[in-house]
Amino acid sequence: MSRSPATSSLLHQPRAVWAVAFAAVIAFMGIGLVDPILPAISAQLDASPTQAELLFTSYLLVTGLAMLVTSWVSGRIGARRTLLIGLGLVVVFAACAGAAGDVNTIIGLRAGWGLGNALFISTALATIVGAAAGGAGNAIILYEAALGLGIAIGPLLGGLLGEVSWRAPFFGTAALMAIAFVALLVMLRDDTTPRVRVPLRAPFSALRRERGLRRLAVTAVLYNIGFFTLLAYTPFPLGFGAIELGLTFFGWGVGVAVTSVWVAPLLTARYRRTSVLAVTLALLSADLLAAAAAVGSPAALVVCVVVGGLLLGVLNTVFTEAVMEATDLPRTVASSAYSSVRFLGGAVAPPLAAWLASQAGDWLPYTVAAAAVLAGAIVVRASRDLLARVDAHLAESPAVEAVAISVGDAA
């Protein structure tokens, strides 16, 4: 059977495209890589669960702050240099984290890792689009494939390497990123992405002036409390070993990837974005309440994690699509402003969950997270008039969907 021209062009890409796509897989693996080794780090480094959860907090806090300036940086030094600097930072900080001897040092090093990942992820899509053969559509498919593979494989690789040592996932990431760095250095010779100069103050001005953008950002903070309670705290009540945790969050990652890439666009083609957001947030709140009730049953908690992944994939994409349509600002400015705020919820949630559990038991973090997510659904419902332009276009172009996916999953 002969292949269609579209299929052929999709597979026959310049080497630079494959190099960036490979690096993107590794970068997205970092989202869930440390999940399976959190209990081991806590036990072997004599760290409390709250200290271990700060591995997420430092990473997400710096990622969010970096999102405010990544467009400004790439507009001045170019996409290629931004990519290489981002990869180089991840290599250095991941390797140092693997060699660290105490949890506080690792927490600081994860912050540097977050800076590198923010620089790389925010630039990778535009680079692939600029270098790919066969048009933007093929570039987007490749990027979505890299995203899905990274999100799903990260926890599984973390679990497999975590069986050897809690240090192994850090060293493994550093080695893979070093390979990606060399590949980009050799294969991405020219800067194929045009430089767009964005004022440094642009994201700050956007949050100050755009009421709809502010409302979505506040809702996303509440939503991310649920997201990262489920992702970052659940390894502790599950009580699994590294490989079992890796398999659990592999299922979570597959769910996120499938619904973000395929299900979310189908829903927004038929229903208002605000309706999809409000209903899915309510369902996630119910899932978190189910996790609170089932926290003593590992099998039931695994089911809640996987179901949560399916819901989170929809929310990640639709939230950022909504941000893209909420304002007349350039998409890079809107996404930077939104992402910088939304990560605050992700940064606060992991240590807050551990502290709540120490006060009253493992059920309380999920209950508080469910309340926060439900509050987010109420905010969306109450903001329908303010967000009217978000619902003005039901169908979204593939390019916008890809931008939404890349920004929504940059954590």
Automatic annotation (TrEMBL):
Could you list this entry's UniProt keywords, alphabetically sorted: Membrane, Transmembrane, Transmembrane helix
Its placement in the membrane is given as: Multi-pass membrane protein
A Pfam entry, by short name: MFS_1
User: GO CC terms on record?
Assistant: plasma membrane
* Listed transmembrane segments: 16-34, 54-75, 82-101, 113-133, 140-162, 168-188, 216-236, 242-264, 276-294, 300-319, 340-357, 363-380
Location of this chain's protein in the cell = Cell membrane
The record's PANTHER family line, in alphabetical order, gives: MULTIDRUG EFFLUX PROTEIN YFMO
Instruction: Write the protein's name.
Output: MFS transporter
- The organism named in the record is Demequina lignilytica
